[in-house]
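Hey, can you fold this one?
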Amino acid sequence: MKTSFPRAALFLAAPFLTSLSLMSVSPAAHATAPVPPDAEQRPHTVKAPHGAAREDVYYWLRDDKREDPAMLAYLNAENAYADAMLASLKPVENTLYDEIVGRIQQDDSSVPYRDRGFWYYSRFETGKDYPVHARRADGAGVDALSIQAANAKADFSGEQVMLDVNQLADGKDYYAVGDWDVTRDNRILAYADDTNGRRQYTIRFKNLETGELYPESIPGVSANLVWADDNRTLFYVENDPETLLTVRVKKHVLGTPVADDVLVYEEKDDSFYMGIDRTRDDKYIVIGVGSTVSSETRYAPADNPETFAVLAPRARDVEYDADHYGGRWVIRTNADKATNFKLVTAPSDATSRRQWTDFVPHRDDVYIEGYELFDGFTAIEERAEALTRVRVLKTDGSDEFVQADEPAYAMGLAVNSEPDTDWLRYGYTSLTTPATTFEVNTQTGERRQLKQQAVIGYEPSNYVTERVWTTARDGKRIPVSLVYRKGFEKNGTAALLQYGYGSYGASMDPGFSVTNVSLLDRGMVYAIAHIRGGEEMGRAWYDDGKLLNKINTFTDFIDVTDDLVKQGYAAPDRVAAYGGSAGGLLMGAISNMAPEKYRAILSQVPFVDVVTTMLDPSIPLTTNEYDEWGNPEEKRYYDYILGYSPYDNLEAKAYPAMFVGTGLWDSQVQYWEPAKYVARLRDLNTGAHPVVFRTNMEAGHGGKSGRFRRYRESAEMYAFMLDQLGLDAATR
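Sure. Predicted structure:
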């Protein structure tokens, strides 16, 4: 089970990219950038454990309660400045938004999956922002394809609506449903919702037979919940209200006071995240805790979850996640120097690593990312040469791979809710192929397409995807995924948008985006730089881009830019870069290190004040991430982080045009980091290119809720980028 929820959060996949330019316009020249009031009169001495104190004149922009009138006035002034600067681009933004939404099939639904006698799915209705979560009873002639066909005809007879999120979100600036779970008898739904984007959820209960909402609710929790077999007891994870850390597992008995909920487990080490789940065979409830470099799993029988046993005690530099099926545990682990992970098995009553037996051995050239257990086979998600693949390992020891037909793609396991089948569901996409769900018969090889993302007006054959390799300054080969429209010539004149992330071992695989098409139709190239800090090339790729190797992430990105320009994929003065969250750290670093190489920088919810944040354990996520960035209480890490932290390394020089975005209620990267960064950048920037700072006052790390509202935000940002790059309005 996955228990790590890092600062990355919603930026663990390449972003939806958007573009359209109908005219060449410039921001309003008369707008005046706001100046934070009393900056020089409000200095703050920032903790500096290894030398002279650091003075931070914009530290006052931090307000944990988000109530300070001066701070709010400054953010609103920046938003007003952004409005003025972007006013002349509004026609482009509107057309851009219309084009994106025009590609989307609005009355869409997910691929249904069967679980305990019901088929579950989510669907959208035309013009509405939020999904409807529903189910249909199993029966003769009912399957995934027949349900999708009925939904396509708006035939919802026989459907039971569990949650209409449109109704729940009505009148709210922000609304999101996180995890939900149905009791084993299929009668009661528990779900967690968030009303401001802070990821502090409230659990609520609904009787699916009567539609009744139960009176009790459980606030201050993560979006993670599991029912026990008695259909009355719910396990959930309680957050610390200040640090937002997942600190306690509790259980609630429906119909009893929440104040009486029993503490099941409390995690004392604040470097660990926590999550709960049920095993594949539904026999056990598991509590998983994990830090950057260590894991531990507890388990108890789901029919009597009173006492939790430890599967294997935690040990530094030993990670593992476990599932149970077929009378044994199957465990993915890096124990015993299995850097790229291996699979082992253990008996059902295991409590020690001494009971582990190798199942799928470690390989230096193959990274094991995940697995799913079936009666007749094990499906394994693997990564080799920066590409994903699905391996089917059968009980007789034979194996085979699910095939792909493109040089750059992404493949992974889909929802496989039933283990007693020969059919394996998997997802496939590329920079030119919309997201597709297949199922393949592991005995006969027959393959069926269950669904492909409908993209109105899009023809895949008009586009080309490539996988190229560039060379970093230290000789490492860096994979790059590229896409462009057919007819593109590498003559050094095109505009390029280069995306990167490079943290937490999160791999940025090439996937299709409906918004990307507009860029390509106007002759633009889109590239994903698979830089160190991710795991595209295995665990060593991650290790070589974190802690005291973090600089490699930044120099890799810059070296990819240089090589793509050298090869003729882009003009040297028409390169834009984009990253979010920890990818925003990347944007801040390259802006300081090589500002002349980028015409525009797009930075969303950027982690840019690394030293100050990592010195403050009260800030959410700080203590969980000492093994990602280093603990600056130690001098070697303090000095190293101080050498690249974007806020600390701003200086008097010309910077690229920038669009910086944040959310006031962000739980992952606090709003004051980008706010301080932009304020200081305005003080020091000697260049003439515009800097726009947009704060979403009603949302958090992922932006506004709803499927269309996020496209409006993207349209504004990309209108700014396209204007800076001087893209021609005409399609090619």
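The radius of gyration is 25 Å. Let me know if you want another pass with a different chain boundary.
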